[in-house]
Automatic annotation (TrEMBL):
Family indicated by similarity: Belongs to the metallophosphoesterase superfamily. YfcE family.
GO MF annotations in UniProt: hydrolase activity
Xref: NCBIfam families: PRK09453.1, yfcE
Protein name, UniProt field: Phosphoesterase
Source species of the chain: Halodesulfovibrio aestuarii
Cofactor(s) needed for function: a divalent metal cation
Annotated Calcineurin-like phosphoesterase domain residues: 1-162
Name of the coding gene: yfcE
InterPro entries according to UniProt: Calcineurin-like_PHP_lpxH (IPR024654), Metallo-depent_PP-like (IPR029052), MPP_YfcE (IPR041802), Phosphodiesterase_MJ0936/Vps29 (IPR000979)
Pfam families noted in UniProt: Metallophos_2 (PF12850)
Domain of life: Bacteria
Keywords assigned: Hydrolase, Metal-binding
KW Transferase (keyword) present: no
Length: 181
């Protein structure tokens, strides 16, 4: 199974378009959106290419492939314009026999985990920093980072899953930042 992971778009049409253009080449079975799709939040600056209305149109083009969860900046008014569900705090996905728990990260996070077993995978966004590791309980922890508002000195990122491998890429595809098998 091939999955494209995107988190924390915060209404950046430019960055959403860049990642979704990559989706055309990667041809994922599904696109996972880990929340904070349209609003930039009161603590964040406006992201590059901020245009929530255009971002809505672009995301709706992929509605048949999207699995999305609600971020702390997502609201019911966002659901009114998006043609795929975004209001769930979490979702499950099974890929290649792997149970994958999807969430934004403001409710469930590595410090407040849902009930998972060794070998399961926990995928979240929220912190705008890419991660890929296995914790002391044998649970895989993945975060694609943010393609619109990366934190600290991180660059814009997105992630893929293919052949049981999770990879975080710089938006310009110059290098793989994180990888786990």
């Amino acid at each position: 199974m091939k999955i494209l992971f995107i988190s924390d778009l915060h209404g950046s049409y430019d960055r959403a378009k860049t990642v979704l253009d990559k989706a055309k080449k990667f041809n994922p079975d599904c696109i996972v959106l880990l929340g904070d799709l349209l609003y930039h939040g009161p603590r964040n600056p406006l992201p590059v290419g901020h245009d929530p209305k255009a971002t809505v149109v672009l995301l709706n083009e992929y509605k048949d492939k999207i699995i999305a969860v609600r971020g702390n900046c997502d609201a019911e008014v966002d659901q009114m314009v998006l043609e795929f569900p975004i209001m769930s705090d979490f979702s499950w996905l099974v890929a290649d026999g792997r149970r994958i728990f999807l969430t934004h990260g403001h409710l469930w996070n590595p410090e407040n985990m849902p009930p998972l077993s060794a070998g399961d995978t926990f995928v979240y966004g929220h912190v705008h920093r890419p991660k890929a590791y296995t914790n002391e309980n044998g649970i895989n922890i993945w975060n694609p980072g943010s393609c619109s508002l990366p934190k600290q000195s991180d660059c814009p990122t997105y992630a893929t899953y293919e052949n049981n491998t999770f990879r975080v890429f710089e938006l310009d595809d110059t290098c793989i930042l994180e990888q786990t098998l």
